[in-house]
Design brief:
Number of helices: 6
Keywords: Signal
Signal peptide: 1-19
Structural class: alpha+beta
Protein name: Thermonuclease family protein
Shape: globular
Domain TNase-like: 19-143
Number of domains: 2
Radius of gyration: 19 Å
InterPro entries: SNase_OB-fold_sf, Staphylococal_nuclease_OB-fold
CATH architecture of the largest domain: Beta Barrel
Order of helices and strands: HEEEEEEHEEEHEHHEEEH
Helix content: 25-40%
CATH class of the largest domain: Mainly Beta
Length: 219
């Protein structure tokens, strides 16, 4: 019995020791979120354009910066062996990580290539990378444009005026599973909620995740 207890204790210690690092093959969710070994990781200290977001283009017009960010992330990590140093959790209980592929800091690269902002509300680690991208007018810095946190806030403010009890996140059920769509999702307007099927509205992403829904994948 003592041997069994000691063995279990060693396993527990090993699990705890590994808890600060997550490694495995990566899949892309969007421009700042990936899956590593099946676990969702939000990249620490950066904020990429949302999937349906467009940014101002140099000269005039707009470009699909959200789609471009997702594709840039795919080039860096998709089907690659990724190691993420876990830096805690965000407000929605998602893991936050600094992720690397072959020694390349993915968080930093996304910012330095102009595909994401340094998320200075929470961390200043990637401000130098952002300054580099801004000086070279790369990506989102080619013209003044709305950052993703303002884009989300704008979409939320409009949607909550019409949503039941001011809870605008749509919890859809389809053949792909239980997927929630916040107001900035490209599929938001076409997603209809049928409460008779078990679909529902959520007041926050954290509430949706806790109830068993997941965010949409854009790859």
């Amino acid at each position: 019995m003592r041997l069994v207890f000691c063995t279990l204790a060693l396993v527990a210690v090993a699990t705890i020791a590994r808890a600060d690092t997550l490694a495995g093959t990566a899949a892309v969710i969007d421009g700042d979120t990936i899956e590593v070994a099946g676990v969702s990781v939000r990249l620490y200290g950066i904020d990429a354009p949302e999937a349906g977001q467009k940014c101002a283009e140099a000269g005039s017009g707009t470009w699909e910066c959200g789609t471009a960010a997702t594709e840039a992330m795919a080039v860096l990590v998709e089907d690659e062996e990724v190691t993420c140093e876990i830096r805690g959790k965000d407000d929605f209980d998602r893991l936050l990580g600094v992720c690397k592929v072959d020694g390349v800091n993915v968080n930093e690269r996304m910012v330095s290539d102009g595909h994401a902002w340094a998320f200075v509300k929470y961390a200043s680690d990637y401000v130098p990378a952002e300054e580099k991208a801004r000086a070279a007018a790369l990506g989102v810095w080619q013209a003044p444009t709305m950052p993703p946190w303002e884009y989300r806030a704008q979409r939320w403010a409009v949607a909550e005026q019409e949503a039941p009890e001011g809870c605008p996140i749509k919890g859809n059920i389809s053949s792909n599973g239980r997927i929630y769509h916040p107001p900035w999702s490209p599929w938001y307007s076409r997603t209809k909620i049928d409460t008779g099927k078990g679909e529902r509205w959520f007041c926050s992403e954290g509430e949706a995740l806790e109830a068993g829904w997941r965010a949409p994948r854009w790859r």
